[in-house]
């Protein structure tokens, strides 16, 4: 009589995997809640709160956080909570518009380079390398310096400095797809390059491009904030997060911390929330990574 050996999963590994899945689920829920709160605040507060975020009240200037002003007031007596919401609205608009524009440019360049190959691939990748050799902020300053301060010059500046990573991601994905048997079968069946690109390559790279666009939004917001802080981004009268921090430098030196802290948190918190959602999305579209996390 022989006994068959039985194999069971290590309880320690199972508890470790369950703990990681639980932590990941909590992280996703918190990220979703933060992003939802930000979107609702940006969409609902301006039409529902009938207050002028530009209203000056010098008798209430630089008041610390209180029940009447949860974030305090700035050096002109304006409510910081309301101005942070308006600033987030402008910065998020710039970030989303720049991310979408950069994703379209990067997807087009990367897709053409990967699909055509040869001299087209080499030439386009040299363009990408050339743009990558210049610091993004320096190139962005050069672009916005040619225009008047405004929303669209900043969008163009951010888009033209952030499409490079998307181009590389899409090119690598297209090169990987070109080696798949079903692509060879489509080409052998007489399908044109255009049909193969539209029917097979583009749908396969869209999830990666969309993920790159989502991750690009906080980068674009940081870029816009840096340009506005340097006085080269949005007009000073417009309540963007970079302008709020730039205008609060004197208050910080005088010991008033709240005009700088809360606009900074409005930049950091969306960045962490979007990064959490993007990480969960990356795990979902990457089966190998998901299988590793299931251990």
Strand tally is 0
- What order do the helices and strands follow? HHHHHHHHHHHH
Kindly estimate the percentage of residues that lie in beta strands according to DSSP. under 5%
| Spatial gap, N to C terminus | 35 Å
List the uncertain runs: 289-295
- Largest β sheet strand count, sense and barrel closure: none
Oligomer: single chain
CATH superfamily: MetI-like
Shape: elongated
Q: What structural class do the secondary elements suggest?
A: mainly alpha
Helix content: over 70%
CATH architecture call? Orthogonal Bundle
Radius of gyration: 24 Å
Number of self-contained structural domains = 1
Q: Helix count?
A: 12
CATH class reads Mainly Alpha
**What integer is the average pLDDT?**
80
How would you summarize what this structure contains?
Helices cover 74% and strands 0% of the residues. The chain contains twelve helices and no strands.
Describe this structure in words.
By secondary structure, the chain is an all-alpha fold. The chain has twelve helices and no strands. The C terminus is likely disordered.
How do the helices and strands line up, and which of them pair or pack?
Blueprint: H1 11-48, H2 80-116, H3 118-132, H4 136-144, H5 151-162, H6 164-178, H7 181-188, H8 193-229, H9 241-247, H10 249-253, H11 258-285, H12 287-293
Helix pairs in contact: 1-2, 1-11, 2-3, 2-5, 2-6, 2-8, 2-9, 2-11, 4-5, 5-8, 6-8, 8-9, 8-11, 9-11, 11-12
């Amino acid at each position: 009589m022989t006994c068959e050996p039985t194999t069971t999963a290590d309880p320690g590994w199972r508890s470790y995997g369950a703990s990681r899945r639980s932590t990941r689920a909590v992280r996703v829920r918190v990220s979703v809640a933060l992003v939802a709160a930000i979107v609702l605040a940006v969409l609902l507060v301006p039409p529902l709160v009938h207050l002028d975020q530009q209203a000056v009240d010098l008798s209430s200037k630089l008041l610390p956080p209180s029940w009447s002003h949860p974030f305090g007031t700035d050096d002109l007596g304006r409510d910081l909570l309301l101005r942070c919401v308006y600033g987030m609205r402008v910065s998020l608009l710039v970030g989303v518009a720049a991310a979408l524009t950069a994703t379209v440019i990067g997807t087009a360049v990367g897709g053409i380079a990967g699909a055509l190959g040869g001299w087209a691939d080499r030439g386009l990748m040299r363009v990408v390398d050339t743009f990558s050799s210049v610091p993004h902020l320096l190139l962005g300053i050069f672009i916005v310096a040619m225009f008047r301060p405004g929303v669209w010059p900043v969008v163009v500046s951010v888009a033209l400095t952030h499409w490079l990573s998307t181009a590389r991601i899409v090119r690598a994905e297209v090169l990987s797809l070109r080696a798949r048997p079903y692509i060879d079968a489509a080409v052998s069946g007489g399908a044109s390059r255009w049909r193969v690109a539209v029917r097979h390559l583009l749908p396969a790279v869209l999830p990666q491009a969309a993920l790159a666009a989502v991750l690009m939004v906080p980068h674009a917001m940081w870029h816009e904030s840096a340009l506005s802080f340097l006085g080269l981004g949005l007009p000073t009268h417009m309540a963007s997060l970079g302008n709020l921090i730039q205008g609060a430098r004197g208050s910080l030196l005088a010991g008033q911390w709240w005009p700088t802290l809360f606009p900074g948190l409005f930049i950091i918190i969306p960045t962490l929330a979007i990064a959490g959602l993007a990480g969960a999305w990356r795990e979902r579209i990457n089966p190998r990574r998901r299988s590793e996390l299931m251990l």
